[in-house]
């Protein structure tokens, strides 16, 4: 099926994932979609969001709808899977604002509708890095004007999570790191959950390695802040890397959550 990547046909575009999922696994990215990203979809005429590749259980699509409805009650979520059995298993949970359908990167939707957000989590990690650009381009071609693909990866319980925001018009615009601060040894521990486009780039000479190293250095230098709690230490850490010139995003309200975004150009592959 990977030979079909980027071409529309009768079969869904993509390959079946392992399907691993757990309740609350995607809470970190959900609260970002409902937070900083909400300006993208809060006022659109058709607030349609796609959970692409939700896995063996539709729980993440159910949770996504509940979280986004705190921002806009009429938001709709469509869960897409390329495994017909997974779609059949999810159908009993369908209801007002929540549907499930067969589909992949081609994002098939009825009546020519286009999503303003597509969340694809733990999907591309099972592909080759060389396939990422084509997958991104395929999804971008299906987004509504101003739409965003959120391509990310997290651990099994959602304590470490990262994602790239891919704009319909501009391509990738940011990388976000989000981690549970309690018990954190160093920020670069999140590196094992980098999106596929970056996970093999965490080596000296690559920009993402430089950013993670800067976070680690700042975290070590802010060790005296640990007495005030991990949140205060991380807040001071991000302030320090911002002062060093890294284009960090979103502000202290997000940093206190163990979350930091950075402009894509600062971490893009290529050294």
UniProtKB/TrEMBL annotation:
GO terms for biological process: methylation. Gene3D superfamilies: Vaccinia Virus protein VP39. Residues 1-21 are annotated as: Disordered. One of its GO terms (molecular function) is methyltransferase activity. It comes from the Bacteria. The keyword Transferase applies. Keywords: Methyltransferase, Transferase. The keyword Transferase applies. This is Class I SAM-dependent methyltransferase. It comes from Angustibacter luteus.
